[in-house]
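Action item from last meeting closed. Structure (158 res):
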């Protein structure tokens, strides 16, 4: 084999700059979509929780530690359902990561824990747990759909 300047050679060059730009745009789009996607999934779980929250036919008295005190407090029918909330966790949300909390407001329904977990006199009605078990897959699907919607709108998916 001949050596030197007369040897026929070729070069292969790869330029990944466009690919890197595309990946950077994709990651940025996915990070920007984290909160809306989490919200879409949380809404599904929130609605399932509200739908499974028991509602009495009439109001009731609650005796116990509202705000650490003692006494009797009246609660109207539907109070527990009205206390269900969904909120973005500012402490657990940052670039590309979002958390929503779905639960009951203890101050509005201090008896909710007893309803959810039961007492020695009343069976548990774990409505939050049941909602999660029932709607977790639908919540994931809602998140995926929202991610795809946002990334498609930015031209990053087709």
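Sequence:
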């Amino acid at each position: 084999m001949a050596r030197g300047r007369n040897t026929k050679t070729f070069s292969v060059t790869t330029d990944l700059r466009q690919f890197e730009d595309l990946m950077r745009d994709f990651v940025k789009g996915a990070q920007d979509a984290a909160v809306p996607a989490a919200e879409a999934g949380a809404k599904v779980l929130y609605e399932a929780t509200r739908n499974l929250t028991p509602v009495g036919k009439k109001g009731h008295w609650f005796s116990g530690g509202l705000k650490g005190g003692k006494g009797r407090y009246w609660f109207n029918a539907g109070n527990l359902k009205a206390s269900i909330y969904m909120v973005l966790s500012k402490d657990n949300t940052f670039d590309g990561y979002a958390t929503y909390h779905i639960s009951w407001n203890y101050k509005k329904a201090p008896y909710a824990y007893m309803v959810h977990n039961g007492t020695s006199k009343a069976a548990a009605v774990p409505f939050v747990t049941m909602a999660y078990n029932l709607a977790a897959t639908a919540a994931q699907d809602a998140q995926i759909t929202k991610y795809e919607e946002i990334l498609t709108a930015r031209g990053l998916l087709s």
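Note appended to the action item: The beta strands are 60-63, 72-75, 84-88, 100-104.
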